[in-house]
Amino acid sequence: MRKHYDVVIVGGGPVGMLVANELALHDISAVVLEKRHTISEYPKAGTYHARAISTLIRRGIVASPRRTTDHLANTVEPFQFAGYPWLSLRTRTIDGPVMLGIAQADLERAISRHAEGCGAKVLRGHCVTAVSQTETEAFIQSLDDEGNEHSFTADYVIGADGGRSIVRQSGDFDIREYAPTMRAMLGLVSLPHPNQIPNGWSHTPRGWTLLNHNPYGESRLIVFEFDGPVSDRKASVTPEEFSSAVERVVGNPVELVSPHYLNRFSDYSRIARSYRDRRLFLAGDAAHIHYPLGGQGLNTGIIDAVNLGWKISAVLCGAAEEQLLDTYGQERESAGQWLINNTRLQSLMMNPDPIYDTIRHTMAEMLCHQESHDWLADRINGVSAQYSVGLEEYPDLDGTFMPDLEIALNKEITTISRLLGDGKFLIISTEKILKNIPIPKFTNPISLSKELPQDFPEVIVVRPDGYIAWAGRAEEEKTMLSCLHSYFSLTCNNEEKAHD
């Protein structure tokens, strides 16, 4: 007998659990099928950038260290591009830190706790073996640890199952691939003589190393070589192979004690040029894999997950029409392609062959110009994303990320991030204005006791993922409703009351 869910999520890593969190906020019938019983401790992503951090803050998964109420102040931190210390990443201080260092396993635990606390259902030890679909529903089969078969049906299936995604392989997704040109290995080691390898990024005529030195325990070490890809990508890395590669690149013997959690990767890249095939969707590594530099992959996957999660929730709640789901790909596919483009460029720049000196010198010169530097830094940090709806009167607000302002309600002072915690649209204005505006479904009207700063108009509509959906004057309510219907397929519900 098949068990039916509105949504089946294949893959219970950070991306899959974040989608599950979005669905659980709206009591959507969903299940996560995850083949592992426990979270992998393998060292993976550990650097999270501004937009991913602020997104997690707005769901209550990461705490917000509020340091200012000034929505115009910025925080700046140095960062690398292709291993070179050429960038300064920035974000509005009010939105959270520029970067955050968290082991992927720890972040996965935090997201899982939050999602399951909201009611998300997770079946661990379930390996999905088949996915198919018709015009009316999708079919999923899995095997548990004891070899028992399980069958599910769903309105939608979300593939958050990584680079070897069975959901992607089962659907009709247009795939673009880029062949590997180099190889790299990663591991945890103890270094009795840490001065044998420079801490941080370091290059030699033979390649690069990246050492995150831990004086109190194991250090994370990556070695990069550029004389071609490995012949067998799936072959296990031995301690001897890892040590030999480090010695080749450094140019001297390096004492590595107990190398473990060893893994290999390359600059092989792949992207689904469409993230949707009827009832099947892709998010995170299932949609895009790339040369893993600077944690950009998981950062992009976090934004994918929330974008897709709130849209499916709105449709299944009956608040929006199904065409809203097409905007997921329209908004996120370009981000995935940018991810691949910039990491492939970095791979070329890291190749020590003098033939690539021209690229390195050109990029170094370009980044001396502030406009070019800020464009690249903001793309890397995710803060330049803008989902325009054509607000001609307020182009500086159109589709941009809403600052995490403090909001004065009648009974308390709160913030945008807290108000977005339940994953709905916000319509923010005064009580006098709100009582005359029809409120769409899937929307919380927020009645202010004190007006917003002068650079904001009378009415602001914020999407569940934090971007401004509309801004204008109270008398433009018909324009607002038309915009919300045209761009987000929202329907009206006149019975909603303003929160105060």
UniProtKB/TrEMBL annotation:
Any Pfam family matching the protein: FAD_binding_3
Keyword Protease (UniProt): no
Domain FAD-binding: 5-342
InterPro entries to which the protein is assigned, alphabetical: FAD-bd, FAD/NAD-bd_sf, RIFMO-like
Keyword hit for Metal-binding: no
Highest taxon above the source species: Bacteria
Required cofactor(s): FAD
EC numbers on record: 1.14.13.50
Keyword terms, alphabetized: FAD, Flavoprotein, Monooxygenase, Oxidoreductase
GO MF term list: FAD binding; pentachlorophenol monooxygenase activity
Gene3D superfamilies: 3.30.70.2450, 3.40.30.120, FAD/NAD(P)-binding domain
PANTHER family: BINDING MONOOXYGENASE, PUTATIVE (JCVI)-RELATED (PTHR43004:SF19), TRK SYSTEM POTASSIUM UPTAKE PROTEIN (PTHR43004)
The protein's name in its UniProt record: Pentachlorophenol 4-monooxygenase
Organism of derivation: Corynebacterium oculi
Gene: pcpB
